[in-house]
Write a structure and sequence with these properties.
With 518 residues, the chain is of the alpha/beta class. The chain folds into three domains: 11-118, MurE/MurF, N-terminal domain (Udp-n-acetylmuramoylalanyl-d-glutamate--2,6- Diaminopimelate Ligase, Chain: A, domain 1); 122-346, UDP-N-acetylmuramoyl-L-alanine:D-glutamate ligase, CATH 3.40.1190.10; 355-511, Mur ligase, C-terminal domain (Protein-Tyrosine Phosphatase, Chain A, Alpha-Beta Complex), CATH 3.90.190. 39% of the residues lie in helices and 18% in strands. The strands form five sheets. Strands 8-7-6-9-5-10-11-12 form an eight-stranded mixed beta sheet, sandwiched between helices. It has a six-stranded mixed beta sheet with strand order 16-17-21-18-19-20, sandwiched between helices. Strand 3 (80-83), helix 4 (85-95) and strand 4 form a beta-alpha-beta unit.
Length: 518
């Protein structure tokens, strides 16, 4: 049911929705919630975004408790608060009789997702939503899939780390967050529905799954690119990380739109990847058909076993795998494959993914978002494929602060596959840049020994590191700038520094005398 068709936006209607989902806590607060007061501005968990007539959801997070911000939300016009029992008690104790209605729920994050979907009119049920998950390759695969579906006759929006597509219009994604909180996510889905998109391809991260941001989305299919260790700062263990990703299988239930189009629930998973075996088993157990994809030794794309020779604009085996995953779904759904293949072949890819910077220089410069060991290894392989036989890979890399510390060890080990390395700041946030760089260097030194001193330089100033790498490049080399990709800021303890890796690389090349042309 679309937002326009809903008959009422009242507190009692919201309470009924929460009750139907088993999220309403059985206590006296429910009786107070039987009111026909109209909700006029939606649902928020961020008090700063609260508007008069809206609903605030108080969530206890790892760093802050939403109950502490209820007063601010109320001051901004919240007419009711959803909270778990402990937070509800804190709010009532702090506000006393001055507190607006507090509705006690069993699970605040799931209640936020349900309330946000209800407010927007459950747009995922009127769309064909495909979730793309995996440790790496999500953005490129999602971009390929949006392109492929649109070419095959199903206009497909896109929600990804780097870009969004709504109604055929592409725009950058401004945030350092792949899967936004449920209110923003549901609003984006409704925007796509209103713009005439029949489908939406949505990057679906472990954060979005574990934190229930996607809890009220009816997925028509899921694409699983790969799996490796990452994000242990949130999940704690690789088993918990895997369990979060596996949740997508249980959410592939189809929608009104996908059933109406005759599109069966599917899970696209590369069977040859042993790390994805648990995902195949979970899909089999759930009765969701598994569609295979791969790339043959000669580079042909294998779509559930069928060979297709496709010459992609995006270089490297990793991007061929991403394209195969996208096209495998199109083929499995029986959609027109020829136009989808043609469109994917011409797709330049999202910004900051194997993105070339060309200013007439006799060597290649590549900007890539690779920010963990697995993705950096793939990016170096792409760079190596673009170098001449005697060309070198010159790498600028780093690691984010306040994120999985295991990335530093992995990046340090993998970066030694390049001939020269500069360790630069990526997003140190509140951590010491020196400590981050030292951890990367130590891992590299453990791998190559004394050679690290000659091959690896710590240069925190990222612009200076890029200038040093480009300045050393010879004809046939590839300069790989890894870690920032499309991002427009470097996050530091004192705030965000504006950044554009492609622009900086272009400025450096121009300053060194290369004419600008592509």
């Amino acid at each position: 049911m679309s937002a326009q068709a809903r008959q009422e936006r009242t507190i009692s209607a919201l309470v009924a929705r929460l009750r139907d989902c088993g999220l309403l806590h059985a206590d006296a607060a429910e009786a107070r919630a039987e009111t026909t007061q109209e909700i006029t501005s939606g649902v928020q968990s961020d008090s700063r975004l609260m508007r008069p007539g809206g609903i605030f959801v108080a969530i206890r997070g790892s760093r802050a408790n939403g109950a502490d911000f209820a007063a601010e939300a109320i001051a901004h016009g919240a007419i009711a608060t959803l909270a778990e029992p402990a937070e509800a008690e804190l709010i009532l104790k702090a506000r006393g009789d001055r507190a607006p209605l507090v509705i006690t729920v069993t699970h605040a994050r799931r209640a936020l997702a349900e309330a946000a979907a209800w407010w927007e009119g459950d747009p995922s049920d009127e769309l064909i939503v495909i979730g793309v998950t995996g440790t790496d390759g999500k953005t490129t695969t999602a971009t390929f899939l949006s392109t492929a579906l649109t070419a095959a006759g199903i206009s497909a929006g896109l929600l990804s780390t780097a870009i969004a597509r709504v109604g055929g219009v592409q725009r950058p994604t401004p945030m350092h967050q792949t899967t936004p909180e449920a209110p923003a996510l549901q609003a984006q889905l409704e925007e796509s529905r209103r713009a005439g998109d029949r489908a939406v391809v949505a990057e679906t991260t472990s954060h979005g799954l574990a934190l229930d941001r996607v809890a009220s989305i009816s997925y028509a299919a899921g694409v699983f690119t790969n799996f490796g260790s990452d994000h242990l700062d949130l999940h704690g263990t690789i088993d918990a990380y895997r369990a979060a990703k596996l949740q997508l299988i249980s959410r592939i239930i189809g929608s009104h739109a996908s059933r109406g189009a005759g599109l069966a629930p599917l899970a696209v998973i590369r069977r040859a990847d042993p790390a994805l075996a648990p995902f195949v088993a979970a899909a089999d157990a759930a009765g969701v058909r598994v569609v295979d994809f791969d790339v043959a030794e000669d580079g042909a794309l294998l779509l559930d076993g069928a060979r297709h020779v496709v010459k992609l604009r995006m270089p490297g085996r990793i991007n061929a795998l991403n394209a195969a995953a996208a096209l495998a779904l199109v083929a499995a759904w029986g959609l027109p494959l020829a136009p989808a293949i043609a469109a994917v072949a011409e797709e330049p890819g999202p910004p900051g993914r194997s993105e070339r910077v060309a200013c007439g220089q006799p060597f290649s410069v590549i900007v890539d978002f690779a920010h963990n060991g697995q993705s950096l290894e793939a990016a170096i392989q792409v760079a190596r494929s673009l170098a001449t036989p005697d060309g070198r890979v010159l790498l600028v890399t780093g690691a984010a602060g306040e994120r999985d510390a295991g990335r530093r060890t992995a990046i340090g080990r993998v970066c030694t596959e390049a001939e020269r390395v500069w360790i630069a700041d990526e997003d140190p946030r509140g951590e010491s840049p020196d400590a981050i760089a030292a951890a990367i260097y130590a891992a590299a030194e453990a791998h190559v020994g004394a050679a690290a001193k000659e091959r690896i330089t710590v240069l925190h100033d990222r612009r200076a590191a890029i200038r040093a790498a480009i300045g050393e490049a010879r004809p046939g080399d590839v300069v790989l700038l890894a870690g920032k990709g499309h991002e427009r800021t470097i996050e530091r303890s004192g705030g965000a520094e504006e950044w554009d890796e492609v622009r900086v690389a272009t400025e450096v090349l121009t300053s060194l005398g290369y004419p600008q042309h592509t």
